[in-house]
Amino acid sequence: MSYLTHEEYKELGFSKVSEAKVFDELEQYAERQLNRVTGDFYMRHSLADDTFKYRADKFKIAMAVQIEYLKSVGVTSLSDLLNASPSSVSVGRMRIESGSTNAATVGRTMVATEAYNELIYTGLLYKGVDYR
Q1: How many CB atoms lie within 10 A of CB 49?
Q2: Fewest beta carbons within 10 Å, which of 2, 50, 66, 121?
Q3: pLDDT tens digits, one per residue of 53-76
């Protein structure tokens, strides 16, 4: 199940990925990354049936941004994706980053900062626990 079709991608105004086959491959990687930061929300709920249009639209924009990011860093396989991840170590308040750290991603999530920012006000990034 894909969250974003190539046609929807183009309708949103994105254009870096012109081939549908390449788009489909990148969409799978982007889907995994966004599922991880959103707590698999759209694996448990239907994106097509989401009545909160703002959240669904922002998620689709984040998907498009993530796909363009993956295209720009040259990700064509899972190993490429893992090699594109930033390297850093944090101990307490001290953080050491290697020179190859990619500032375009949020921590070690491999999610583009711009895609992450699209999701900020949707509630999909909430990490709290329901205490009821």
Answers
A1: 7
A2: 121
A3: 999 999 999 999 999 999 988 875
In three-state form (DSSP H/G/I as H, E/B as E, the rest C), the secondary structure along the chain is CCCCCHHHHHHCCCCCCCCHHHHHHHHHHHHHHHHHHCCCHHHHCCCCCCCCHHHHHHHHHHHHHHHHHHHHHCCCCHHHHHHCCCCEEEECCEEEECCCCCCCECCCCCCEHHHHHHHHHHCCCCCCCCCC
Domain edges within the chain: 6-122
Q: At residue 50, what is the residue type?
A: D
Q: Counting every residue, how long is the chain?
A: 132
**Contact 64/12 with Cβ under 8 angstroms?**
yes
Beta bridge partners of 94: 91
